[in-house]
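Sample intake sheet
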Amino acid sequence: MSRKHQEYEVRQVADLLEVEARRVAGWAEQGLIAPTIASRGAGSRRRYLLKDVAACAVLLSLQYVLGERSKLARHVVGAIGAIGEVVAEQLATGKLDSHKQNALTAIVSWESGGEGVDLYFPWDAEAAAAVNNARANGDYIISAPLGRVLERVLERIEESEDKDT
């Protein structure tokens, strides 16, 4: 089975991220993440695919920067969307972009009361221009480096694959 289609339980996702399983379960309960394969009835378990693990890695990186209980992190997480797919593709192929590129930049508009979030990933000329514009407007600028978290997740995936063979 390819990495993209590998299914993970909450405990396995937590192991990949090196956090407590309760933390991952709490993210799901709060609606910050959603398993691709929902539990069906008593005794069944939620199942996560690599794209879900990638979204968890992004969330964890945001929480390292903003704190675990940050309301701002919730707004940013709600806008992640396709970024999880890009990160999942890196994990699936085992080819991570550079640390400089693997940075999520979020710009939160003051005018929207903190509700308007624009995300830039990977770091590039467009993101740099947006940051300069946001500075001029006095908007929040959040940069969450993903590189170290993704490296560690990839190492853990590869270790689990080695155990299985």
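Comment: The mean pLDDT is 88. Helices lie at 10-17, 21-29, 50-66, 71-78, 83-93, 125-137, 147-164.
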